[in-house]
Design a protein that fits this description.
Belongs to the gluconeogenesis factor family. InterPro entries: CofD (IPR002882), CofD-like_dom_sf (IPR038136), Gluconeogen_factor (IPR010119). The chain contains 13 helices and 14 strands. The chain has 335 residues and is α/β, with parallel strands linked by helices. The protein folds into two domains: 228 residues, 3-Layer(aba) Sandwich (Rossmann fold); 87 residues, no CATH class. A hairpin with a 2-residue loop joins strand 13 and strand 14. Helix 1 runs parallel beside helix 3, helix 1 packs across helix 13 and helix 8 runs parallel beside helix 10. The longest helix has 13 residues. It starts with 11 loop residues before the first strand and ends in a 5-residue tail after the last helix. The model has no long low-confidence stretch (mean pLDDT 93).
């Protein structure tokens, strides 16, 4: 009689998002023995990223750069150089991060931004995979509750109006093509053990990835546990008055199915008068906790004090969140 040998494998975790929240979670997860894949939004049209996007017709490189910086295994001194941003008095280079220029150069050299990012990831000894959600810049569109519509992430954010729903199109949509993710993104989603959404701006960092047509379908089909990291603060003009359940409902409504299996929710309270509202003028109030409403959306609430107070603002404790993500990934499969 022979006994079976159980082979332990690394959990495959896909983190989908953009902005400052995604690198924070990836940095926490990097401490664990997991196979990480970052899927990154490509709708940013502001700042250095927006300028390079418009001039070179490439995906905005900023979010890719920040993810690459935390997933890389090169020296901290090298990362400091990669993240260096030119001073505002530097004329044509003003405001550009060096890493953005490097990513733009790789896109031009390879004549393919996706391949350029993969080669640069190898050169920077990235532990895991970094995949832009599309191989071309996408335009974000929003319809507001008052019936009006706007295009462009920066304009939508600046409008400070209540959003009904969003969608994306290729920047060059003259042929009315639909946005599509590369096969690597779809395969990562379908083969994942766990998919993490957020944290980050619901309508401008998280959902722009999920409404790409083949990503939406892959999320419906994947056997992976899908986890949403609920935001700590509402975002002015985007999610004013939203509870955690409202965020989940918006995700499920955009997908057309209750895909979220669990919601990681912060129980720590932001002290009154702690936040510098002028410095962090995009935030509004602390997100209302509603675990029972989350259950009605088909998701399991997973709670903990995940609050980190720093720089006069309220943020997730990346290490604490990563620990919960790993506990879910290695727990019993209930999906």
């Amino acid at each position: 009689m022979t006994s079976e040998i159980k082979v332990e494998t690394k959990p495959k975790i896909v983190v989908i998002g953009g902005g400052s929240g995604q690198p924070l979670i990836l940095k926490g997860l990097k401490q664990y023995d997991a196979e990480l894949t970052a899927v990154i939004t490509v709708t940013d049209d502001g700042g250095s990223s927006g300028t390079l996007r418009d001039y070179l017709d490439i995906i905005p490189p900023g979010d890719v750069r920040n993810v690459m910086a935390v997933m890389s295994n090169v020296s901290p001194e090298f990362i400091d150089v990669f993240q260096y941003r030119f001073k505002k008095e530097d004329e044509m280079l003003a405001g550009h991060a060096l890493g953005n220029l490097v990513i733009a150069a790789m896109a031009e050299k390879e004549n393919d931004i996706f391949r350029g990012v993969q080669i640069l990831s190898h050169l920077m000894n990235v532990d895991g995979h970094i995949y832009p959600v599309a191989n071309e810049p996408l335009v974000l569109h929003a319809k507001f509750k008052d019936g009006t519509e706007l295009s462009g992430e920066a304009e939508i954010t600046a409008a400070h109006k209540v959003i009904d729903h969003i969608w994306v199109t290729p920047q060059d949509d003259s042929s009315r093509r639909v946005a599509q993710a590369p096969s690597e993104v779809i395969n990562a989603i379908l083969n994942a053990d766990e998919i993490v959404l957020g944290p980050g701006s619901l309508y401008t960092s998280v959902l722009p990835n999920l409404v790409v047509d083949n990503v939406r379908e892959a999320l419906k089909l994947t056997p992976a546990k899908i986890i949403y990291i609920a935001n700590i603060m509402t975002q002015k003009g985007e999610t004013d008055g939203y509870s955690e359940a409202d965020h989940v409902r918006a995700i499920n409504d955009h997908i057309g199915s209750q895909i979220v299996d669990a919601v990681i929710m912060n129980t720590g309270e932001v002290p009154d008068n702690y936040i510098d509202w002028q410095k962090w003028n995009e935030v509004s109030t602390q997100v209302a906790s509603a675990p029972e409403e989350v259950r009605k959306e088909g998701a399991v609430p997973i709670t903990g004090d995940l609050l980190e107070l720093r720089d006069d603002g309220a943020f997730h404790d990346g290490d604490a969140v990563a620990k919960l993500i790993m506990q879910i990934a290695t727990g019993p499969d209930e999906k």
